[in-house]
Amino acid sequence: MNSLLLGSFPNKASLVTPGGSCWRSKNWTNNCLTSSYAPPTASWPKRKIKKEYNFLRFKQSSLVFRCEGIEGGPTCQECNRKHIVKATSGQSFESEPPAFDSKRILTSVKNSLDAFYRFSRPHTVIGTALSIVSVSLLAVQKSSDISPLFFTGVLEAVVAALFMNIYIVGLNQLSDIEIDKINKPYLPLASGEYSIGTGVTIVASFSLLSFWLGWIVGSWPLFWALFISFVLGTAYSIDVRVPLLRWKRFAVLAAMCILAVRAVIVQLAFFLHMQTHVYKRPVVFSRPLIFATAFMSFFSVVIALFKDIPDIEGDRIFGIQSFSVRLGQQRVFWICVSLLEVAYGVALMVGAASPCLWSKIITGVGHAAMALILWFRAKSVDFKNKASITSFYMFIWKLFYAEYLLIPLVR
């Protein structure tokens, strides 16, 4: 390597001589350069002069490392090792593959889950799950009925119903994209987070999963509950310009559709699923079941009417003739509140007639408290503020959840 390094200079003898002053002089570099390189003549082009100068500077720096080794400094191998370390510790000029960014992936997953959460309309999901669990408890006759068989039957019903619930609310969003851009711009399809293709894929997948699970379970009450919900949910939402479809355009049909699903199918079909399929008992329509069906009929009508109150602007533009569009927000609002107060009054009488003291006290106090909370909460609603009306609508759903906590205690 030494001969290769030194052989690149034109005059080796004058540049390197053992013990020569060129090596020991502090100004050895200048001496070596003057002895081995003559200044270019003026006739040389400037570009060539610049190239020769840069070339000699490179050779000069290489010679310095070798000279330091001769004087007792670090050897060439040590110098090379030192500079390799420095080069690797600095910033690389070569392009490197992007690092694994876990924070970015977590953010992406979080955003995806949030979009699906909004797409599934969680207040309906919670309502469906609570209603099925509550009605299933009505089939319990003794403490030994709370067994793994009970939990398996409830889980089958809840999962299949939730799949169908996502189909119904997803189809409604696919049919109402333009309306939701005005009424509910935060929904994934209306905001553009989901494409129409994504929405169709989700809706189709969950409907197939629901029917598949209902068929695998082998419970006819469960399967018919899913099938009727599918038919009514499709007829309610789908917009294919067929006269007998898109029931939400007509206030009475829309209310009857929600009433049939929330008040009748959920109560009767899922009770029969537990009674006949899980416990293998004969069909019996008990007093608590009749009360639950009647009370939820009132509640379902209220939900059907109230859900259109915050959405009056978009419904009016797109020709949806809801009761809120026809009668006005404030009037429909107080009709809903009055219907619920009547329902709570009936529940108080049913509770008072119960032969069980604990059931009489719990259901009586619970329904009286909810009636009072409803009245005072309704008095504080600002009809000029859409957020206030929407907040009260979600409060109605909380009362809906609370009722399903009381229904199993009616005896």
UniProtKB/TrEMBL annotation:
Subcellular location: Plastid, Chloroplast membrane
Membrane-spanning segments: 123-140, 146-171, 192-215, 221-238, 250-272, 284-306, 332-351, 357-376, 388-407
Keywords from the UniProt entry: Chloroplast, Membrane, Plastid, Transferase, Transit peptide, Transmembrane, Transmembrane helix
The organism's place on the tree of life at top rank: Eukaryota
UniProt-recorded Gene Ontology molecular function terms: prenyltransferase activity
Annotated signal peptide: none
Family: Belongs to the UbiA prenyltransferase family.
Organism of derivation: Arachis hypogaea (Peanut)
A Gene Ontology term for the protein's cellular component: chloroplast membrane
Membrane topology of the entry: Multi-pass membrane protein
Entries under InterPro entries matching the protein: AtHST-like, UbiA_prenyltransferase, UbiA_sf
UniProt key word Transferase: yes
Protein name: Homogentisate phytyltransferase
CDD domains with a match to the protein in the record: PT_UbiA_HPT1
